[in-house]
Structure formats: C-alpha cells, structure tokens
C-alpha cells in the first residue's frame, strides 16, 4: 500500500513536469507561490522591535544582579529597561502585544488531492489493524501549511511589573523584586497562524491564469484546472474557513471563468471576483490561537 501511495504522489509530480513549455507549469507556479508566502512570513522577523528585546535583556540582567545582591546595578538596568519601553509606548498605535520573536515552519504535502485520499484510506486501514504509530506517521504527513508562531510581550502588564520591581529594590526587598521579575520574564503570549499552502497556490494560479487568458487560452485553462485541484486538496486536508464563501462556491466560480475563457473570453470581471473570493477565503482560514 505504501508503494501505491508513493506512486500516486510521483504520478502527480510527473504530470506537472510533462506540461513544461515556454510558460511555467502549474507545479512551478505553485512552488513559486509557496516560496513567496514563506519568504513574506520570514521577512516579518525584521519588524520585531529591538527596543523590546533590549528591555528584556536588561530585565534579565537586573534579575542576575539581584541574585548577586547588586541592588544598585539592578535598579539602573530596570530604569534603562523602562526607558526602552517608554519609547515604544510613546509611538502611535502601539499594539497591546509587542512581537519579540517569530518562528516559521513549512510542512508541504506535495501530492495531489487524489493522493490525499489514498493516504487517508491507508491511515484508516492501519488504525483498524491497531498500528497506531504507523498511522500517526502517515497522518502527520497530511499537512500543507506555513506555520507562523509569534511570541509577544504584553505591554499592558510588563512595564508595571518593572516599576514594582524597582519599588521593591528601593525598599531593599530584593527577594520580592526577584519574584516580580521572574514572573514578568516568563509571562509571554504565543499566537500561531496557519497559512494553508493549497489556498496560497490557488490564488497564484488564478492570478497567473488571468494575466495570460488572452494570449495563451490553453495554458490559462490548465492553471485554472490546477487551481481547482489545489482547492480540493485544501478541503480534503481539512482546512476550514470562517468565510461565508464555500469550497463549492469557489469551484463554481472557477467553472464560470473557464467557460468564459473557452468562449468569448471577456472574463476580466469574473477573474477579479474569483481572486477576491479566494483571497478573502484564504485570509479567514488563518487560525490564530493563544498558546500561553
């Protein structure tokens, strides 16, 4: 059965390679879309506020100095840490949660929508046999997503904690100051965002099909068919959106666009509507969950 699964996945990959011509294949377009989405997620790391990181480093340093009974230096570092935060708080539209760390991981199921069904059937067969661990390994492969985890500093509580620690130092109560700093340095919020790769690919395939629908009708139709398969894959992998738009509606819109491309080919408005619907569906499928 494992050979069958492998052959189905390889077949879907070979199908993409056989379509090579002067324009990118559907597989190449999808690969570029996935890479672009991953790069965008990674680029956000550059926006992490350095003042917040400096404040954390100073707070940790103050805690170490308190452990060494160096109250004077601890007080100075806490004051500097508060100064870093004041610069952030003075900025316009300061968020309640300030990003200080970001992790990005990519899990990409490379097979087609049909390959997903094959793997699911095999997982069920293994579970029926009681081979739970083998099933678990296969089940873990049924992911096609970019996971972005952002660790944030709670700006509403962190500055107050530093002020309280400073107060305890002034009052020569280092143990209380240490406890406050320990809590402050362990109180973060983790938010995870899941970006389904098949929907990223769907949107890109529709966009590229729109661009060439007049000059290369045949290739545009191939892209649209691939977009439909990516939608199927997203659905079979269990990615659920809070959008009012449904997978069924998106498939219907793709059929309408294909019919227009095959005929008079005045599909500009249809393409625009389809792109907007896919984009909105994709954005609302992002799942954010606090992980304290």
Main traits of this protein?
single chain; 292 residues; alpha+beta; Four Helix Bundle (Hemerythrin (Met), subunit A); 2 domains; four-stranded antiparallel sheet; 4 strands; elongated; disordered N terminus
Molecular structure report:
- The protein is α+β, with helices and mostly antiparallel strands and 292 residues long.
- The protein has 2 domains: 21-44 and 195-290; 48-103 and 153-187, Four Helix Bundle (Hemerythrin (Met), subunit A) (Up-down Bundle).
- Helices cover 65% and strands 11% of the residues.
- The chain has 12 helices and 4 strands, in the order ααααβααβααβααααβ.
- Strands 1-2-3-4 form a 4-stranded antiparallel beta sheet.
- Helix 2 packs across helix 9.
- The longest helix has 20 residues, at 217-236.
- It is elongated.
- The two termini are 41 Å apart.
- The relative contact order is 0.12.
- Mean pLDDT is 84; it is low at 1-21.
Which strand order does the major sheet show? 1-2-3-4
Helix content: 55-70%
The average pLDDT is 84
Rg over CA atoms? 26 Å
**Number of helical runs?**
12
Could you give a short account of the major beta sheet?
4 strands, antiparallel
Outline: elongated
What is the total domain count?
2
Task: Annotate the secondary structure layout.
Elements: H1 2-17, H2 26-43, H3 50-67, H4 71-89, E1 97-107, H5 113-129, H6 132-140, E2 145-154, H7 158-170, H8 174-184, E3 189-196, H9 197-212, H10 217-236, H11 247-262, H12 268-285, E4 288-290
Antiparallel strand pairs: 1-2, 2-3, 3-4
Helix pairs in contact: 1-5, 2-9, 3-4, 3-8, 4-7, 5-6, 5-10, 7-8, 9-10, 9-12, 10-11, 11-12
């Amino acid at each position: 059965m494992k050979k069958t699964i492998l052959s189905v996945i390889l077949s879907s990959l070979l199908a993409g390679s056989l379509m090579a011509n002067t324009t990118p294949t559907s597989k190449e377009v999808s690969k570029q879309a996935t890479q672009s989405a991953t790069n965008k997620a990674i680029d956000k790391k550059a926006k992490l506020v350095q003042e917040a990181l400096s404040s954390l480093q100073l707070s940790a340093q103050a805690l170490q100095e308190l452990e060494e009974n160096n109250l004077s230096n601890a007080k100075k570092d806490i004051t500097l840490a508060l100064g870093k935060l004041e610069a952030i708080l003075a900025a316009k539209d300061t968020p309640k949660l300030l990003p200080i760390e970001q992790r990005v991981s990519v899990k990409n199921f490379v097979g087609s929508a049909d390959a997903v069904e094959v793997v699911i059937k095999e997982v069920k067969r293994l579970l029926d046999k009681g081979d739970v661990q083998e099933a678990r390994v296969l089940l873990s492969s049924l992911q096609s997503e970019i996971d972005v985890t952002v660790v944030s500093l709670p700006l509403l509580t962190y500055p107050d904690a530093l002020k309280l620690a400073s107060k305890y130092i002034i009052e020569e109560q280092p143990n209380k100051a240490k406890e406050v700093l320990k809590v402050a340095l362990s109180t973060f919020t983790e938010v995870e965002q899941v970006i389904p790769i098949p929907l990223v690919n769907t949107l890109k395939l529709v966009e590229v099909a729109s661009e060439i629908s007049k000059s290369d009708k045949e290739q545009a139709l191939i892209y649209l068919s691939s977009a439909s398969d990516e939608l199927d894959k997203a659905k079979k992998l269990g990615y659920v959106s809070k959008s009012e738009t449904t997978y069924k509606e998106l498939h219907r819109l793709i059929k309408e666009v294909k019919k227009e491309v095959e005929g008079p080919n005045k599909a500009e408005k249809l393409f625009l509507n389809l792109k907007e619907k896919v984009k909105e569906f994709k954005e609302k499928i992002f799942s954010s969950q606090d992980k304290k």
